[in-house]
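Extended Data, panel c. Modelled sequence:
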Amino acid sequence: MIYLLDTNVVAEITTRPKPAPAVVAWARSVPATGLYLSVITIAEIEAGIAQTADLVRRAAFERALDGIRDDCSARIAAIGEREALAHLSLHRKLKSAGTSIDPPDALIAATALANGWTLVSRNIKHLARTGVLLLNPWEFGG
């Protein structure tokens, strides 16, 4: 099984001084080869780093991102034609239902949908209307 990690999961396991034990336990229970990131997640992390005023924290976040890129270099999913078409379909579905989600989340969800992957996030309620398979590692029982 392939899991696409949302930005909140990546931040939890890489930069939090005391990450949630359930999230750490879940991440350790899955083979690293099954954990993927979206290019959108990388961009969101870059944006967060750029907004960090504390230079010590910024440097720590940059090191964490470098580590993520090294560890996941072969498992960073790009937005190709299949993902773009899934995004278009998702946008139409949400628009016809009179709802929406922010574009980065929609692109991450579309990536998971296009590839048949499970999206791992804390934002279950927010992402549920996309129809993507979801897993909340904060609720992991080990």
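Helices lie at 7-15, 21-29, 39-50, 55-72, 81-96, 103-115, 124-128. This feature is highlighted in the accompanying rendering.
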